[in-house]
Write a structure and sequence with these properties.
InterPro entries: DNA_helicase_UvrD/REP, P-loop_NTPase. By secondary structure, the protein is an alpha/beta fold. Helices cover 42% and strands 16% of the residues. β19, α30 and β20 form a beta-alpha-beta unit.
Length: 713
């Protein structure tokens, strides 16, 4: 790879990079100057919000290159409209003062060839160039001939040194984008059409999370107006995971995508309790939806029982009577339309009013829509609707199900067994049954049940696209909660069956897609890892026959020597002291982030020992939330500074094992694997997750024997 000091091509490409940065700065400044065009206070405020969004989208991180590749097209028919052209491929579009493109967005159609072209299928290219970077400056390049004698002389395509260095480059802090290293099989998923729902089964290190994030970025590029109208959302397993991925989309210029957890998605009540596993399994079962359906629709009453004389409506000097039998027919006809409970209730009053109007017109009176609306608003009709089709509060209906065994038995007859019914009652899940919904201590599973009740009462709005990450750990009811948020849109499901650690983890993606309402989704499997070294992935895969039998073991393209180290400590009392020494060596000898992962109960002890030794660190899950960006009244210069500012945290992060899923660190120290396994029923799967978080080096410290699966040869 040529060096910057003696290669004129590198100097020329660096010049283009410098000019591109200047052009991007000009684009941002142009956006900021629009503020002066506000006509009044309201329009100025709206314009300020728009320019802040635009300014964030045009941020330039000087440590990250604006482009990472170049495509040179030949004078051949396959090149089409791009014949004899060359294009720089980067993270976002950049143009000069005349509008001429200087960098092409990686999502543009012309960029597809960067990821998919081969000597056998060059897609019109003469050459593909990759750039090496350090601290935002070009350090070298690699050219790959794709057509003509040069391609034939080059022989079979080998591994790109620049590509390998980028994949293995040490990092600290949040997750980075992978636009410069997307592989062809990943690119096909990223560029899948918006109308297609995709489920990605991805082994550790295969980039499934990055693929999902890049897919939503691609969809925003290809279908921006539709996604802006319909909305898009990324759903992760916890807030720590969202913090880890939160910078990927902004780095690609996309800041309009919401990010949340399932718990926050369904947060209609405050969650302050945790269910025992047997209760959580029942509450998360899809059959709870049928129980709710039965409980809600059982509130309807027959008019012949509650209003045997029917309804008498007074209009002027006349009285009009609708018999109970006819009202019951109206109720049944409304139910047969398969509407939500709330929608049916809203339809009943106008239907009763229409029956009154029919009688009025038969008697020779003149009526219109205003007459029908007036009849529907009469106290007689409103009282009848309240009596026959009562309003229901979703929180209250769930509270009553949990409180009344007889009510639950009627709703769950033929759906839940007696033991399952007993498992969801307050008496089984709480030391003391609450008296009112307001005093109840709700769990995460309860919040999902309440969300289901809300949707059965009034349909929730759908988004245009949802990305659901670490999906293997969700219950059927949680899948339903996500599915109704994309009932008219599409979804990208990401996960790994082998990493399912909850008692209700999905047994198969077919089950998941059924509960999401996306049975027509395309299921893709990524088994080739690019991030986790082969020694580590093969070591962790020893757990799979016991933890996830039937699942294909992952493979890795990375063969990095010295990446796996296992130290047994003879005396358990010396374990923490040995850990402190290992941390000191890791900080001194290696670059990048360090994740110390241990059973949740062990973290406090480890944190105290490291603090006493003077090592700066953070404990995942304990950091305070970042303050909101204050910029509504800032000047343009202050706004840009605030958008570009960032404070890196310590290299060393202590990670409770239950929060490790989805995260990556250059080095991972695992403390006492046996404790991780013993801490929960699916402990082997949890340990599999923990062991596959390292992208360069895995160091295991233990005093208790390792699980037998890891020691078997």
């Amino acid at each position: 790879m040529p060096e910057i000091s003696d290669d004129p091509i590198v100097a020329k490409e660096q010049s283009h990079l410098d000019e591109s940065r200047a052009a991007l700065k000009a684009m941002r400044e142009d956006a900021l100057t629009l503020r002066a065009q506000g006509g009044n206070a309201v329009s100025t405020e709206n314009l300020l919000a728009a320019l802040r969004t635009r300014a964030k989208a045009l941020m330039d991180d000087p440590s990250v290159p604006l482009f990472f590749g170049r495509l040179d097209y030949g004078d051949v028919a396959d090149a089409g409209e791009f014949r004899d052209e060359h294009y720089y491929i980067g993270r976002r579009h950049v143009h000069d003062a005349t509008g001429e493109p200087m960098v092409i967005d990686w999502r543009a159609p012309v960029s597809t060839a960067f990821y998919r072209a081969t000597p056998k299928a060059p897609m019109g290219l003469d050459r593909r160039r990759r750039f090496g970077f350090a601290h935002g400056a070009i350090t070298g390049y690699e050219d790959e001939p794709l057509a003509g004698p040069a391609a034939a002389a080059a022989g079979p395509a080998g591994t790109s040194r620049i590509l390998t260095e980028e994949i293995e480059r040490p990092r600290s802090g949040p997750m980075r984008d992978i636009v410069s290293t997307i592989q062809p099989e990943q690119d096909e998923i990223v560029r899948a059409d918006m109308s297609v729902s995709v489920c990605v089964q991805g082994a550790p290190g295969t980039g499934k999370t990055a693929v999902g994030l890049h897919r939503v970025a691609f969809l925003l590029y290809a279908h921006r107006d539709r996604l802006r109208r319909g909305g898009s959302l990324v759903i992760g397993p916890n807030k720590e995971f969202l913090k880890y991925i939160e910078q990927v989309l902004p780095a690609l210029g996309e800041i309009e995508v919401g990010q949340t957890t399932v718990d926050d998605l369904v947060a209609r009540v405050k969650v302050t309790a945790q269910d025992p596993p047997e209760s959580g399994v029942v509450k998360g079962d899809a059959r709870m939806a049928q129980v709710l359906h039965n409980a809600i629709w059982s509130r309807l009453r027959r008019a012949q029982d509650a209003l045997p004389d029917g309804i008498m409506v007074v209009r002027g000097s006349r009285r009009w009577r609708v018999p109970a039998s006819e009202i019951d027919e109206l109720i049944e006809a409304t139910k047969e339309r398969d509407v939500r409970y709330g929608a049916g209730r809203a339809m009943l009053a106008p239907r009763i009013a229409h029956a009154v109007l029919y009688r009025m017109e038969a008697a020779g009176e003149t009526t219109d829509d205003r007459t029908q609306n007036a009849v529907a608003r009469t106290s007689e009709v409103r009282k009848a609707v309240d009596l026959l089709w009562p309003a229901i509060d979703p929180v209250k209906v769930v509270f009553e199900l949990y409180s009344d065994p007889e009510l639950l038995a009627r709703a769950a007859e033929g759906v839940l067994s007696d033991a399952e019914q007993a498992a969801v009652l307050w008496t089984a899940t709480r030391p003391k049954a609450p008296r009112t919904p307001g005093t109840a201590k709700w769990s995460s599973a309860d919040a999902v049940v309440i969300d289901e009740a809300h949707d059965q009462l009034d349909r929730l709005p759908s988004l245009a696209h949802v990305v659901l990450d670490e999906a293997q750990d969700l219950s059927a009811m949680q899948y339903r909660a996500v599915g109704r948020r994309c009932s008219t849109g599409s979804v990208t499901v990401l996960g790994d069956i082998a990493q399912g650690t909850t008692p209700w983890a999905t047994p198969s993606w077919d089950e998941t897609l059924k509960h999401l309402g996306k049975t027509d989704a395309v299921v893709e499997e990524l088994t080739l890892g690019f991030r986790v070294p082969r020694q580590i992935i093969e070591f962790a895969a020893r757990l799979l026959p016991a933890a996830a039998p039937g699942l294909r073991p992952p493979t890795s393209v990375r063969q990095q020597g010295g990446s796996l180290e296992i130290d047994a400590v003879a005396d358990a009392a010396d374990l923490v002291a040995t850990l402190v020494t290992a941390v000191e060596l890791a900080l001194a000898a290696h670059e990048g982030s360090i994740g110390l992962i241990a059973a949740d109960a062990r973290i406090a002890e480890a944190a105290a020992a490291l603090a006493a030794a003077g090592f700066e660190h953070t404990v995942l899950g304990s950091e305070p939330a970042a303050p909101p960006l204050e910029g509504a009244t800032a000047t343009e210069a202050e706004l840009v500074e605030s958008l570009l500012a960032g404070t890196p945290g310590p290299r060393l992060v202590l990670v409770p094992a239950t929060l490790a899923k989805g995260l990556e660190y250059d080095q991972v120290l695992v403390l006492e694997p046996a404790e991780i396994v013993a801490a929960e029923p699916r402990g082997l799967r949890r340990l599999y997750v923990v062991l596959t978080r390292a992208v360069s080096r895995l160091h295991i410290l233990h005093s208790e024997p390792l699980p037998e699966q890891l020691t078997a040869v």
